[in-house]
Structure formats: C-alpha cells, structure tokens
Amino acid sequence: MLREHLECFLQEGRARGGGEGLPAFVERELREFLTCGVLARGFARFRCDECGHEILVAFSCKGRGFCTSCCGRRMAELAGHLTDHVLGGLPVRQWVLTLPHRLRYAAAWDHKLCRAVLGVFIRALLGFERRRAARRGIRGGRGGAVTAIQRFGSAVNLNVHFHTLAVQGVFIDDGSGGLCFVPNPEPSELEVEKLLLSVARRITRLVKRRGIDLDRPQDEEAIDALASESPLLAGISGASVLGRTASGGRAGQPVRRVGSKPDSPLPSAFAERQAQFGGLALHARVAVPAGDRPRLEDLWR
Q1: pTM of the predicted structure, to 2 decimals
Q2: What is the pLDDT of residues 57-74, one digit of tens each?
Q3: Among residues 73, 41, 68, which one has the least CA distance to residue 57?
Q4: Is pLDDT of 10 > 50?
Q5: In this structure, is the dihedral angle defined by the CA atoms of residues 229, 232, 235 and 240, taken in order, positive or negative?
Q6: Residue 149 and residue 164: Cα distance in Å, rounded?
Q7: Kind of pairing, strands 54-58 and 92-98?
Q8: CB of 116 closer than 8 Å to CB of 99
Q9: Where in the chain are the domains?
Q10: Hey, which end of the chain has fewer CB within 10 Å, N or C?
C-alpha cells in the first residue's frame, strides 16, 4: 500500500504545503522503510563450514518510526536486557501519564519540552515512593524507574504519553557498602490522586514558563513554531491529536470508527488506581510481583 501510494502522498503534501511538503526526515524514513529486507539493497552472506549451506540475509533499514520488523527486534532485545539486568526480580508497577491535547501537540515536536515534562513526572514519582518509605521509618531511600515515551494511541493517533515502570519500593544502604531493596505496599486510590495533583501543579508551572498556559484556551494568535517550520506536518499533527481527518473530502471532521454505534454507551473512564485532573490522567493499576520474569518481560514489550 505504501509503495503504491507514496509518491502521490508526497506530491499532494507538497501541493498542500505550498511547495515544501513533509519534512525531509519523514520522507527519508518512509523511503528507507521500503528498502528494508530487500536483497537488491544489500545483504550479508553466511555459510556453514561443515555442510556448506549458505543463506543471504538482507540488510534492515534500522528505522524507528514505521518499520514493524526493526522496531519489533529492537523491542525484544531491549525488553530482555531490562528484565535480566535492570529491574529483574523486583516488584514493579507501571505508571501511565496521559497529557492534555494541547500539551500532546507541543510535546510531539518539541523534544526538550517533552523531556522536561517527563523529568517533572519522574522526580515526583520517585519522591512519592521515597516519602512512603520514610513514613514507615525507612530514611534515605532511593527508587528507580525506566520510561518509554509512546507517541501514539490505540487508533494510531498522535498521543504523546509516558509508560513508566518503577520499582515499588526504595534502595537503602545495607551498612557494608552495598544496597538492599525495601518494598513499599501498594498505593491507595487517594495516594494516586494526590500524586497526580502534585504532578499537574508542577507541569502547569513548567509549561507556563515556556509560554503554554494550560488553564486558558488556545490563543489563535499565538505563534506556532511547528506551523512556521512545516505547515503540512503541523496540520496533520493537530488533526491527529484531536481525532479528526487531516485531508480529503472529510477534512476537519471526526475520524470514522469501524463498527461504532452512535447510541452505544461510553465505557467508564474510572478504574482502580486511576485519577484524572485538568486534562491529565494517571493510571497505576498494572503491577508485577517480585520474581515474575515472564510477566515482567511481557510488560516491557
């Protein structure tokens, strides 16, 4: 499908973008994806010294955006490493932080802003575990966490959010130059809500210093740096964040969902250990007990 329609897509993009089209890195990623696994683009030759059997292995594109093969291989390798050498054997809880629509759009192209927002969240989360341990008389503890920044939602829409796997507890000095791990109990519903309120206040202060006021409606006259650099990418990104069609005869209209019924009841947005406030949502229901390696690796994947 991509091979058949790529040139038409790029041509239409240049027409809609005033001749500029999509950024060069997007076009490069798409074109390299079409060369992944193609022997004509290069390969390695392997031969068994004992039986003489030979195989040719085509070079991969090593893409990070579209190629399911390269991304899947990278995912499996990293999941195994994190399970065996980073957090394996410890109780781990997944914390998922979802951002407001306006912040998703900004974080999608402003990598410094995205990292800053993540830094605020991680510091709040590690401090949360440290204070919980301190209330039980465990002082000087330090936690640990690894985060995957996911850039899409279940409908492959633009939705920058954070999946953080954090140890449920703290590390303390064992008195002999090493560290020992002290687990914390499961967080309560109220604790998750308080943590989200703290994260929301910190993020609001951070983005306000960068010219984004989440408490006010979007200022149509405000300068959009992404639109100034690439109008086409900005339009596509904005439509994807809002769940609207970006181009064609239905441009600006809500995306059609196959099998959806207008009169069907909406699923409940509330679940165990989940909180929402000011467009942010924090989900902490999923946890893996200590020593459950298969389940932890599945969660990493």
Answers
A1: 0.80
A2: 999 988 877 788 888 888
A3: 41
A4: yes
A5: negative
A6: 8
A7: unpaired
A8: no
A9: 1-66, 91-256+270-300
A10: N
